[in-house]
Every structure is written in C-alpha cells, then in structure tokens.
Amino acid sequence: MSSWEVKTIAQRAAEAMPESVLAGAGYVLLAVGFAAAFMALMGMALIYAERKVAAHFQCRLGPMRVGPHGIFQTVADTIKLLFKEDIVPSQSDKLLHLFAPYLSMMATLLALLVLPMSPVVQIADMNIGVLYVTAVTGFGVLGVLLAGWSSNNKWSLLGAMRAGAQIISYEVSATMALLVVVMFSGSMQLSKIVESQAEGWWIWRAPVIGLVSFVIFLIASLAEISRTPFDLPEGESELTAGFHTEYSGLRFAMFFLAEFINMFIVAGMAATLFLGGWMPFHIGGFDTFNSVMDLLPPGAWFSLKSGLVVFLIMWFRWTFPRLRVDQLMKLEWKILLPIGFVNLFAAAASVVFGWYFFPIR
Amino acid sequence: MSAITVTSLDERIRRSIGADGGASTTQEYFVNMGPQHPSTHGVLRLVLKLDGENVREVIPVLGYIHRGVEKMGEHLSYRQFVHLTDRLDYLSALANNWAVAKAVEKAANIETNERIETIRTIVAELQRIASHQLWWGVFGMDLGAFTPFLYGFRDREKISDILEETIGARLTMNYIQPGGVMFDIHPDFQRKVKEFLTYFRPKLEEYETLLTQNVIVQERMRGVGVLTAEKAVSMGATGPVLRASGVAHDLRRSEPYGVYAKAAFDVPVGRNGDCWDRYWVRIEEIRQSMRIIEQLIDNIPEGKHLVVKPAVRTKVPEGIHYSQVETARGIFGVMLVSDGKDVPYRIHVRTPNFNNLWTVTETAPGWRVADLVTIISSLDIVVPDIDR
Predict the structure, then answer these.
(1) A22: pLDDT strictly greater than 90
(2) Which CATH class is domain B110-312+353-387?
C-alpha cells in the first residue's frame, strides 16, 4: 500500500504556517471542526447503537417511535439536552464546575486527532502517536476529578476519587500492552504500525503474546473509560450518578459524549494496534487471497473492526455486574500488571529472536 | 437539676488514624443514603458514617412512608381491613390478606373448606415466586448488571397475568378474605399455571447462568455481610434472611397452615449467613414453590369458594387474637384486640422487613459502600412494609 501519498491536515497546516499564519490557523480550525463534527455524529450513532444493542439483549425493542426504528431518537435527545437548564449548585466551586466537562471533552478530542481511520483519513500523523494517545487520554481523569471536587457533593467526590484511582492504575497495564505492539512494529507512529501489519495482524502474528496483550489492553481500557464491569465512578446503584451527579443539560451531555467517543477511541486503538487498523486481512505470501481481501476498501475494514470491538464492549456492559473498589485494584496490581510484565518480556525475546510469523527485519 | 447532654451527629465524628500509623489522619464523615437513592428501594433513609469508602456505622431513619395503617384499621370491619394489608408488603399482598383472614377465622371459629385452603396456598406460592423473581432482577441491578432486571420482570409478568385473570389486580391484590376467597378461580387458571411452570423451569436455569455462575457476582457476595444465627435470632430476622443464617425456621413447615402439610417441599437453609447464602436460599425457594404448586394444581377439590355471606360483618369475640403467615420476606403477624364488636379495638401488624432491615446495622460496618448496597439488596427490603 505504498502508493498512498497522503498529506495530513496537520502537515498542511505546518507547511502553511511560515508563509501565512492565517492559512495555518485555517487548517487547524478545519481539523478541529472536522473532529468536533465527527464526535457529535459518532456520539449520536453510538448512543443509538448502545440503546438498540441493550434492548435486544434484554428482549426489548428499544427506541422505535422517532423515525424508522427510532433512528432519530438520539437527535431528539440531543436537542432536549441542548435546551435543558444548566444548573450549577450554589455551594460549588463555580469556575472548576464549569470548566471540568471541557477538560474531559478535550482529552477525547485530542486522542481522536491521531486515529488512522483509513489511509486518507487521519488528521495528524505523529511520529510519537502511541505515546501521544497515552498522554492525552490521561487528561480525561483531570476533568472527572475536578467535576467531583467542584460539585461539593460527597457522592460526587467518592465517584471522582474512585475514578482517579482506577484510571491512573489501569493506564499502566494499558501502556504495557501497547508497548508490545510498539516493539513488534518498531514504530510509535500509528500509520507505520498499521502498515507493519500488511503481512498479518499483530493479534495472531505474535503467537499468544499478541492475543494476551490484546485482552489486557481491552480490559485495562474498559477500566480507563469506566465502562461496565468497571463503571465504579458512576456506579448509579451506589453513588446515584458518581462524579456527574450535579451536572445537567449540556455539561452533562459533554461527559456523556466524551464517554461514548472514548469507547470508539478504545475500539479504534484496539483495531489499529492489534487488528490491523484499515489493513485488510492479509496473510503473507497468499497473494490471491490477499487480493480478494483488498476488494473491500480500507475505510470499511477499519469500520468493521472497530464496530466489532464496540459491540464487544457493549456486550460486556449488558452482561456483567460491576466490581468492588478493592477487587478492582486487586485485578490491576496483582493480576493484570504481572501478566503484562511477563508478556512484555516474552515480546522482547520474541522480537530479538524473530519468533513470530513473517518477521519484519 | 441534672444536666441534659445533647449529642449531635457531627459530634460523633472522630478522626481515625490512617494506614501509615499516624502520619496522616482521615476524617470520618456522614452521608445521607436516601430517602431518594436508586438502591434504597423506595424511601428508606440510611445515615452512613463513612471513612473513605469504608462503612463505620449505619443508622436507618424511618417514617417517610408512614400511613397509619394500624390506626385506620380500628375504624374498618375485618373484611375491609384486608384491603389495607396489600399496601404493606405489596409483593406479598396475598400472604398479608391471608394473615388477617386466618386471625379472624381462628377467633370467630369460621371453618373453611379444602378448596379454599388449596386455592389460597397456590396463589400465595405463585406470588412468592413473583416476589423472588422481582428481587432477583433488582439484586442484579444493585450489583450493576441491568439485564437481569428486565429478565426478572419479563417472567414476573406471566404470573401477574395469571393472577389478574382471577383476582382482577396485578400488584395490590385483595383476594383472600375471612371465610374464603373473594371470587372463584378463573376457568383457565389451572391450565395457565401449568403452562407457566413448564415455561419458567428453563428460564430459572437461565437466571443461574446469567448471574449465579458469574465470577464477579460470586466475588461480590461470598463472605460479605455475614449474619450469624445467634444475631439473626436475637434481632428477630425471619424468612430467607434467617434461614440463610442456618436456622431452619419456616412457618409453612413448623406450624403448617393452608394445605402446606399435604405438600412435599424442602426448606432451603444456608450455612454462613452471607449475601451468597441469602441469594441461594431465595433461588432455591423458587424451586420449592414450583414444587408445591405442581403438587396442588391438579388436586383442587370441589366446593364453595366462600363459606360466609359477603355482606355479613363478622364479629370477633373479646380478647387478643394473633396469627402469622410466612410471606416471601418472613413472618407476617397480625394481632387483633377485640372488644366484641365488628371493628377491632386495636390492630398491630408485625412485619418481617422491620426486623430484617435492622440486621444491616450489624452486618454492614467494616464493609464498603458497594457492599452495603449488596447487603441491603440481599435482605429484600420493601419499605412500605417497614413504615406501615
């Protein structure tokens, strides 16, 4: 796939900047506008999908009234949320209370910028892509902590503290799993990682190691984005609504949207790193088979893969109950982290000795 | 003059030493759980003393749904009073009806026939299943799994449909009255109950695979909120809560009423008294209730469904009369104090949830907030029953 000569918006902005600041800013605005629009549309689609998936797991139909099969239900809900009163508790720390949802949203937006959705759809292609994603997703916890702290509500604070402990702990395991792929592909640039999987996806090319790190990444990321069975920060049966108890209207919608887009980002990252991203299902040497697989465009492959992971995440949510705080910590520090470490060492050995299918070097 | 000391809740807060042995201290704080809270099942208010996530003390505060049912009963005839009992524990409405009917029948020497007793037993057992189904769903939801809730309600709907045909109501049912039952059973009743039993048996296995065998559920329940047998007895806990602690006390077995003496069934008993045992006892009780119904449904004898004239205001001889039944939550007792008239002089209702709730003050301290939710849910609280 080396025939793709693509210049990302970020590159164009960087090139235009020295000549005319205005043109550079225009490109940046275009990129942010695209990402924001994508977030809004994707959020609505995901919320609709979640409701339908949940409904069918629960022997229900889900939204059926607004439009055919209720497809405009989320549009109606969004409009409702836009017009709702934005209540700020009188005893809250107002500035932080107003600022927290934006911080949460920003983390999501920044992570979205580097996701390679197809060879031609990627806003910025950084050479430190993996590191960047790990760094900016950490921002999300700031928003959650501030939201819980500034609300001046004990339940909110409990939820925020849970979120803080949980997200920071699980980031370690998630990063550990990402490092495995970085080692195999020899690059942190997300587009390079995808291209390194032209002969086969890392989930099976690195025997067992790839699968283990995929599972660890999925579990740890679920905890990072607070989805069931790790939805303790919200834990509605325990903490009413956790850190966003005191939020309403648009600000609540921002937390909600960030949560759903985070789910997409996790799915997209899992697809990019372990399932080949937009790369079709290829097996090195099987040229006829590979050319049949090439019939489906790369964008469709990416959508399929990330859609599959999203479905998996939703399936978890509507099946499992949630863990307790101490069990959550036990799972991370006593089970996932040791396995992740051993896996990382195994990956290092595997890379050095070339014990994997279709070695790169 | 002696001084009166008033201690406010805030004064009961103390500083506790942190894990590092005094370098840092943590402060305990109070949190109101309820009266509006998703998992207090209505308007129960618990004042929690917390140290971080750890529960130090639980203080139940009652009275948010007190309606004065006992006082109202002093102005109603015995037959009318039946219609208030369904508002106590609305998930065991029929058993509550039955307790009043039993007390009046015993006091006024009304002989009922086999048919009446068999019908009463069947409908009470059907409602026990429905109650446990609802509990199972809500329990799943309190643990954070939403799906069991809808599965439980889906199957409870079938029982509601069956009872609606005969009784005319789906939730607050009034059917059993002193001297019989209000209407004869619907012609389709027997067929539909049998259909339900064949429908529900595989569904119960589905319940087990969805929740019982889930590793997270087991982790959340095993060893959590242990209620010892001594404590359970001394606090007056009854029903599945008592039996989970290892005390095989079931009125259906120890003082058989209705036609329970004729039916073969087991009384499931737990071993440790933790949440897991309380869960297991209820699931097993569903099986036993199905067994009882299966034995009785084909053997409903012929006869009248009401042995007194409905218009007659039954007079109860002077004295104190007490009668109790085993509802889905425990022992529901009715004490009638009569001065010989057709309305009671005083009525007292002994409700199982009141005592069951108080066990939480023993079992919850030392566990976390999430466990407190599990413990309360495993007690299967119905709040209108506590406040009366």
Answers:
(1) no
(2) mainly alpha
Q: Do A232 and B370 touch (CB under 8 A)?
A: yes
Listing DSSP states for B357-368 in one string gives: HHTHHHHSTTSB
Contact yes or no for B144 and A54 at CB 8 A:
no
Find the residue in B nearest to A330 (Cα): B219
pLDDT of B5 reads 60
User: Per the domain annotation, does A128 fall within a domain?
Assistant: yes
Q: Which of B20, B17, B173 is nearest to B94 (CA)?
A: B173
Report CB contact under 8 Å: B147, A318: yes
Measured in angstroms, the CA of B4 and the nearest CA of chain A are apart by 32
Within a domain: residue A240?
yes
DSSP A43-87: HHHHHHHHHHHHHHHTT-----SSSGGGTTHHHHHHHHHHHS---
Tell whether A318 lies on the interface with B, counting CB pairs under 8 A. yes
Residue B64, Cβ density class (10 Å: 0-12 exposed, 13-18 middle, ≥19 buried): middle
Cα separation values, B164 from A278, B159, B186, Å = 57, 8, 10
Sign of CA dihedral B221, B224, B227, B229: positive
d(CA A146, CA A97) in angstroms, rounded, equals 7
Shortest Cα–Cα distance, B135 to chain A (Å): 15
> Which residue, among B238, B288, B240, B287, has the nearest Cα to B260 in the 3D structure?
B288
Pairing of strands B331-338, B319-326: antiparallel
Task: For residues A17-39, give the mean pLDDT.
Answer: 83
Sort out which chain A residues have CB atoms less than 8 A from B53's CB and list them: 158, 162, 325
How far apart are alpha carbons B126 and B118 in whole angstroms? 12
Going from the C-alpha of A258 to that of each of A39, A87, A108, A322, the distances in angstroms are 8, 20, 6, 21
How many residues make up chain A in this entry?
361
- pTM, to two decimals: 0.84
B129: buried, middle or exposed (CB in 10 Å: 19+, 13-18, 0-12)?
buried
Distance separating alpha carbons of residues A64 and B145, to the nearest angstrom: 24
Residue contact A238–B39, C-beta within 8 A: yes
Chain B residue at shortest CA distance from A324: B370
Q: What are phi and psi of B60, to 5 degrees?
A: -70, 135
Q: Where are the domains of chain B?
A: 10-61, 110-312+353-387
**Structure confidence by residue, pLDDT tens digits, A252-309:** 888 888 889 999 999 999 998 888 888 888 777 777 877 887 788 888 888 899 999 9
Any domain includes A23: no
- Residues of chain B with Cβ-Cβ distance to A54 below 8 Å are 146
Give residue A290's domain range: 91-353
| Total of domains in chain A | 1
Q: Which residues pair with B325 in a beta bridge?
A: B332
* Residue A294 within a domain: yes
Report the distance separating Cα B250 and Cα B231, nearest Å: 18
Residue A321 contacts B, CB cutoff 8 Å: yes
The first and second tokens of residue B209, run together, are 């695979």
Which residue in A has a C-alpha nearest to residue B39's C-alpha? A237
- State residue A2's pLDDT score: 47
**Per residue in B348-359, pLDDT tens?**
999 998 899 889
Over residues A71-129, the pLDDT tens digits come to: 888 888 888 888 888 888 888 888 888 888 888 888 888 888 888 887 777 778 888 88
A145 within 8 A of A157, measured Cβ to Cβ: no
| Helices (H), ranges, A196-354 | 202-205, 209-224, 236-239, 249-274, 287-293, 298-317, 325-330, 337-353
> Residues of B at the A interface (Cβ-Cβ below 8 Å)?
29, 31, 37-39, 52-53, 140-147, 150-151, 154, 210-211, 214, 216-217, 219-220, 368-371, 373
pLDDT at A1 over 50: no
pLDDT-flagged residues of chain B (< 50): 1
pLDDT at A285: 75
